Amino acid sequence: MFPKERQKGEEPIKFYHLMDPNIFKLPLVRFCRVCIILYYSLLFLTQTGLFLYKFETLYFAQYSCSYFFSLIMITYMVLFPIGAHTIQSFMEEVRWWKTDSADVAIEKMIKRESFQSIIIMVINAFFVVVALTSQVIPQNVDKRVFYEIALLEDIFPKWAPVLTTIHRIQAMIVRFFTIVTSFGQFLYPFFNSRFQLYMLLYFIKNINEKFAIDQWRIEQRLLFCLRSYINLSKASRKMLKKIEVISLAYQVLILVWSISFATYVLLFQDDARQQNFRFVSLLMCGLFMLVILFQIGQDIEDSVTKVFETLVSIDWYNWNESNKKIYLMFLVSALKPYRIQFSENFSLNYYMAGQLLQSAASVVLVVYQLNFM
Fold it and tell me: Per the similarity annotation, which family is this (predicted)?
């Protein structure tokens, strides 16, 4: 009945070892991270000074999209160690089981979904490459879109072709690893949590003996399932609580960037039309990641709901009073809804996805109406 804890190297998703948080503690990686932060911070502060010096609305709207995106990149580079350490602490806190701890059907399902997670990462990497390549390929409007390009061409006119090429290449490499790594590291703990819940559901269904009633065995199985559920639930909530502030910062920055993007499209329509492929590729990349995030969030929420439903369906009538009390404690613990929630009003589930789609549709409608007024 009781599963064995998995050892290092027995993780169901091998691909994510390439994004181990310990990699970012290496001296060379830390040095590169500091250099990137300093480089983008210098450009960002220089452009901030130009905004204040010129103090023109159209000038700000023209470069605000790339300006706020670079701020998102700087924020990520600064806060990344905190998020990586939080996820690593969560993975170390939970007692993860071997994938063959339950029956063969669940083991096959875990292996199938592990393979699907790798496919998801490959598809995501493809979308990211397409989106970033479209940003890197030079266009006539680049100096009027990317403030970094404009700064390099204005400050170093003789070296502009070389410097802008170097900037485009490093921007693509840095942003690729930033987006792909952060996406993978975010998914990794929740895929593991979902696999753990699959096996826990199996153990809950088999608390009772098939042909006899052994109160001692039932008690041990009840306690094991209760402790395992509390351990996973407590560690998950602790992790989400720690990254709540970080996620709030990202939510605010992404909201500001979205507003600046809509403003740019509205005010600079001629330049925007020349970048249709850039916008479409960026939109496809963002939509794919959002769909996966909301899907995994809803799946975990449904799995926790199934824990309660499975407990309710158990034949507990012939148990002794001690086991009934443990069972009642388990019911109360499982009754509390669990969702991947980063703030009071933001959760990863279908309901929130619907709310975001509704808001996005409203914004698109307003922009469309303003465009033809």
Answer: Belongs to the insect chemoreceptor superfamily. Heteromeric odorant receptor channel (TC 1.A.69) family.
Residues 6+ apart with CB under 8 A from 125: 176, 180
Structure tokens belonging to residue 312? 């309710």
- Once rounded to an integer, what is the mean pLDDT over residues 308-333? 87
The one-letter code for the residue type at 278 is R
Other residues' Cβ atoms within 10 Å of the Cβ of residue 83: 20
Beta bridge partners of 341: 347
How confident is residue 350, by pLDDT bands cut at 50, 70 and 90? low
Highest mean pLDDT among 158-162, 297-301, 313-317: 158-162
State the residue for tokens 């993860």: 96
Please tell me the number of Cα atoms within 13 Å of 74 on its side-chain side.
16
Residue 266 confidence (pLDDT): 81
Instruction: Confirm if 16 and 181 have CB atoms less than 8 A apart.
Output: no
Q: Residue 148 corresponds to which tokens in the numbers above?
A: 């970094």
Q: Which residue type, as a one-letter code, is found at position 180?
A: V
Tokens for 250? 């990202």
In SS3 terms, 40-61 reads as: HHHHHHHHHHHHHHHCCHHHHH
Contact 65, 247 (CB under 8 A): no
Whole-number Cα distances in Å, 77 to 73, 74, 180: 6, 5, 14
pLDDT bucket at 363, cuts 50 / 70 / 90? low
Between 13 and 319, whose confidence is greater? 319
Transcribe 77-133 into DSSP letters.
Answer: HHHHHHHHHHHHHHHHHS-PBPTTSS-HHHHHHHHHHHHHHHHHHHHHHHHHHHHHH
Cα-based distances in Å from 114 to 15, 57, 63, 185, 229: 9, 49, 41, 14, 22
Token pair of 293 as six digits: 């995030």
* Claim: this prediction has a pTM higher than 0.85: no
b/e sequence 235-270, b meaning 16+ C-beta within 10 Å: bbeebbebbeebbeebeebeeebeebbbbbbeebee
- pLDDT of 237-252, one tens digit each? 888 887 777 777 777 8
Gap between the Cα atoms of 81 and 79, Å rounded = 6
